[in-house]
Amino acid sequence: MYCPQCGQLQVSENVRFCSRCGFLLEGVTAVVASGGVVPPRYVQPVNRGLSARSKGVRQGALLMLSTLLVVPILAIITTNFNFNPELFVPLAAIGCFIGGLLRILYALMMEDANPPIEGGQVGAYAPAMNPQLDTAARQSLPPVNQAGNWRPRPNTAEIYQPPSITENTTRLLDKDDPNTR
Question: Tens digit of pLDDT for each residue in 148-165?
Answer without folding.
Answer: 666 777 666 666 666 677
